[in-house]
Amino acid sequence: MGRMKKLIQKPDDDVAVYDKVKEVLSGFLSFNRVMSLDNMELDLSEKLAAGPKSAEEQPTEEHNVKITPSRRWRAAPTRREQEKWDRATKAATGGSDVMFRESKRPRGDPEVLAAKSREQCYKLKNKLQVLTLGIGGVGLVSAYFSYSPEISASYGAGLPGSLAYMKMLGNSVDSMADGAKGIIKGAIGQPRLFVPVILVMLYNRWNAILVPEYGFMHLDLIPMLVGFFTYKITTFVQAIDDAVGELGRRTRS
Fold it and tell me: Out of 96-110, 171-185, 225-239, which region has the weakest mean confidence (pLDDT)?
């Protein structure tokens, strides 16, 4: 009863309190404030002098939230990816291993080493010439028994071009000992690229003049070029021999 009596006697105070609470909860904009601007009895000088609160004084929830950097975990590589990475690393560091091994190898007299290198180069050139002649002989016999005498003769006509090319290539390597001047002189004095041109011209003149007029055997261009490229097979065989020898030395050491 006492509470009801208070409500009946002082309804205006309760309404004011309710409006005040509502005004606080409504934020900076409310209809009560707008309506109070028309009231000439209110003194708003203190509120206007105070000014709005700065952003630093108004606590927000963003300041209370702690930003933690997220960790990005890298997925483990698969077995195939790991093998590719290992091969790439081995290929990238293989040259440095050879360089370090050569740098640690004991050195001797430069003149003795130069003479030894020249002797090895001379032996290698002779070995390549003999190997080219041997592979060419095997190809010549195989073409005779497998195809026809014309194919064998055409292959035999291209084989001397392969030997001449290997000889010119060896002379160009020897000219590198004189530096850049020797390289230029060797390139000018050894026209290796003219060897296949000469073979093609020989093929044309042979079939155009000697075959119809004198009845010589007809030559084919493809077997002639195969005979010329016999030196490619020789270099491939020599590279395999060197790789096998190096592998054997590594396993023994």
Answer: 96-110
**Residues 225-235, mean pLDDT to the nearest whole number:** 94
Which of the pair, 253 or 154, is modelled with greater confidence?
154
Give the predicted TM-score (pTM) of the model.
0.55
Note the pLDDT tens digit of each residue in 115-129: 888 888 889 999 999
| Minimum mean pLDDT range among 23-27, 44-48, 118-122, 150-154 | 23-27
Give residues with Cβ within 8 angstroms of 199, minimum separation 6. 157, 158, 161, 224, 225, 228
Q: Sign of dihedral through CA atoms 229, 230, 235, 236? A: positive
